[in-house]
Design brief:
The protein is mostly helical and 260 residues long. Helices cover 70% and strands 2% of the residues. Strands 1-2 form a two-stranded antiparallel sheet. Strand 1 and strand 2 form a beta hairpin. Helix 2 runs antiparallel to helix 15. The longest helix is centred in the last third of the chain and has 28 residues.
């Protein structure tokens, strides 16, 4: 579990938790639990995605994947335990009291992001799409589940803990949807243009596996344009919040232009 979580990574999702709350004027130690929880969920999903039965990858974050080091059975168990630990953290009062209704809403948000309407469902669509021709709308839906769901959940968790009203949560959802999709389009571009030593995973893996990607469907130039469009959408969503949302804006730009 420590190997999977503490071996590097961008920590984008925890940062989004803090940034969403900061945009609403809240900076509290209570944010540490949801920030850790989303990173634990992300780490679990990577461990399972890398398994031979899934994406069958041997490299993650510049190191051998968890199942290569510890074996498939132990990797599955580690992923299961990381997911359980995420919900334990959210349910625990160790950092201080949280309104029970907010805590339940946070648990519901993270659970939905993990399940059939989120990461697990998106991964199922991804596996079924190998060797298939998808339309752009189908591809975007798949990645809105597989990648975007946890990014949307991250900003929503920060908003919930900050006491966001329905309008603010809608802003965060619009922002999170755009950033999550931009992140995935950029990921697909890096799979074509990146080098394994830089991106920390096997470059060209999607093409080798005959998986539909944004560059394979609309081309590299149109994929870059789509990243720019989605980033603009994310920035427009939070523009009324002005400088309070400066960290959210910075993270949106980072997701769009990152090199790994």
């Amino acid at each position: 579990m420590r190997y999977a979580v503490l071996g590097g990574g961008k920590r984008l999702r925890p940062l989004l938790v803090y940034a969403a709350a900061r945009a609403l004027g809240v900076d509290s130690p209570l944010l540490d639990a949801p920030a850790c929880a989303v990173e634990l969920i992300h780490a679990y999903s990577l461990v399972h995605d890398d398994l031979p039965a899934m994406d069958d990858d041997a490299l993650r974050r510049g190191r051998p994947t968890c199942h290569i080091v510890f074996g498939e059975a132990m990797a599955i168990l580690a992923g299961d335990a990381l997911q359980a630990l995420a919900f334990e953290l959210l349910a625990d009062d160790h950092a201080g009291p949280i309104d029970p209704a907010i805590r339940v809403a946070m648990l519901r948000t993270l659970g939905r992001a993990c399940g059939a309407e989120g990461m697990a469902g998106g991964q199922a669509l991804d596996l079924a799409a190998v060797g298939q021709q998808l339309g752009l709308a189908e591809l975007e839906h798949m990645h809105a589940c597989k990648t975007g769901a946890l990014i949307r959940a991250s900003v929503r968790l920060g908003g919930l803990l900050a006491g966001a009203d329905a309008d603010a949560l809608n802003v965060l959802d619009a922002y999170g949807h755009a950033v999550g999709l931009a992140f995935q389009v950029r990921d697909d571009i890096l799979d074509v243009e990146g080098e394994s030593a830089v991106i920390g995973k096997t470059a060209g893996k999607d093409a080798a596996a005959d998986k539909p990607t944004f560059p394979s469907i609309i081309g590299l130039d149109a994929s870059r344009a789509r990243v720019s469009e989605l980033t603009a959408t994310a920035l427009d969503a939070i523009a009324p919040w002005g400088t309070h949302a400066s960290l959210l804006a910075e993270l949106a730009r980072y997701a769009a232009h990152r090199g790994h």
